[in-house]
Amino acid sequence: METKAYVDYMVQQTVDILGIDSPTGFTANAAKHLMGEYEKLGYKPVMTTKGGILVDLGGKNEDDAILIEAHMDTLGGMVCKIKDNGNLELTPLGGFSPNNGEAENCRIYTRDGKIYEGTFQLNDASVHVNGEYSTKTREFKGMEVVIDEEVSSADDTKALGIMIGDIVAFEPRTRVTDSGYIKSRFLDDKLSVGILLGQAKYLADNNITPERKVYHHITVYEEVGHGACGTVPEGVTEILSVDMGCIGDGLDCKETQVSICAKDSGGPYNYEVVSNLINAAKENDIDFAVDVYPHYGSDADAALGAGYDVKHGLIGAGVYASHGYERSHKKGVENTFKLLINYVR
Ligand SMILES: [Zn+2]
Question: Which of the four, 3, 17, 161, 334, has the lowest number of CB atoms within 10 Å?
């Protein structure tokens, strides 16, 4: 199987999607872009009421369909207070740690369509002035967005059109190195969205009609837990989440591998699905790891929690430093793509 052209396509798609800010609750721009990409491949994507994207990729057996999911929403912030000094206090969107956002550039999206730049900083962020700089615990209460506009009061900031409830998106700082590493915020889960597009392109290019009906659902609100609580088409018997594979102490996975999750915080994944994924990886010389994720929930977990009677699984390219400045590798993308293609024949 010649995969290089597909890996290039998936990485480029990922880079493009990373270039569109989409904190959870603010995903319309990313959705519009992705609708267009599926249409270019010849599919007819449908936008769900909630703002996700459902795509029918064809397939024979409609009573044993598989729904493959990745999420386009990311972590971010929301303005919860306009401070007396004109700067902004944030509340996190999703499980964003303030440590991971410190000193990062960000964009403030106002409701009347303006975008302002700023930087997320510790309050009183000059080391030469603040004697407690090193010891302060980083928390949203003690940090602020310093707006790159000449403001010195709450009224100055309000005059810009900035309001409580405005969305703040953090700069992803995307890099692809010559050695194949992909570094960016929000590879969780835009890397998997790129991989799903790769599968859609592969099926279209090669005129493949899978044995089972295949759907893609690009979800929104995964980062707050209800991404996949709806939009399960008639006939779906299995939900496969494609989301970042965990890397860290005590886990086997590397950035160059596809991770198959056996259990996460939601409990064990379907025994048969996990076994079939492992067998598909072994039979096709795919570099993989099986792991247990200590602190993790997926779209597939959410669908089961919502009451759907389906089998569920979770795979994804290994991603290090998750929910921070994340890193994966082109080989991880390739192995995830190959597993998807071979699992859904
Ligand atoms: Zn995720």
Answer: 161
pLDDT in tens, 191-246: 999 999 999 999 999 999 999 999 999 999 999 999 999 999 999 999 999 999 99
Question: Which CATH number do you get for residue 80?
Answer: 2.40.30.40
| Residue % of the chain over a pLDDT of 70 | 100
Q: What does the pLDDT read at residue 282?
A: 98
The CA 323 to ligand 1 mean position distance, Å, reads: 9
Q: Let me know if 290 is exposed, middle or buried by CB neighbors in 10 A (0-12, 13-18, 19+).
A: middle
Domain carrying residue 302 = 4-74+186-344
Which of these is catalytic: 89, 222, 255, 326?
Answer: 222
Indicate if 106 and 62 belong to the same structural domain: no
Q: Are residues 139 and 115 in the same domain?
A: yes
| Beta-carbon count within 10 A of 36 CB | 10
Residue 141 within a domain: yes
Q: Based on the residue annotation, tell me whether 222 is a catalytic residue of this protein.
A: yes
Mark the residues whose beta carbon lies below 5 A from ion ligand 1: 188-189, 243
Residue 2: pLDDT above 90?
no
